[in-house]
Specification:
By secondary structure, the protein is of the alpha/beta class. It has one domain. The protein has three helices and three strands. Strands 1-2-3 form a three-stranded parallel beta sheet, with helices on both faces. Strand 1, helix 2 and strand 2 form a beta-alpha-beta unit. The relative contact order is 0.11. This is Thoeris protein ThsB TIR-like domain-containing protein. Keywords: Membrane, Transmembrane, Transmembrane helix. It comes from Candidatus Fischerbacteria bacterium RBG_13_37_8.
Amino acid sequence: MPAHLQSQINSSNYVISIITHNGKHGKWVDKEIAFGSQKNKQILFLADADITINQRYQVIRIDRSDPFKTLVSVSEKIQRAISDKAAENLIEGLAIGAIILLILSSIKDK
């Protein structure tokens, strides 16, 4: 896989793959998914309703009768991921702050 794609996957929270009946899906798509999985990235598929996707992956089904509904679902999923990541970063920051405070207070007491 080209280095620029590896770099983009490394800097992303999600790998999003669109699978349709009309699409041309090469082995490069499988390589991107495999690389994303190896890097512990969340994998999200947008897929036509009757395409089988491995159950270990998150799937949003494409609603061809209401494409806007599909876009809303994708947007909501990404917003939740951003919110979850922000909360995770906040908790990590609070934990680091608490450790620093404990270290500083132990130094002050000596």
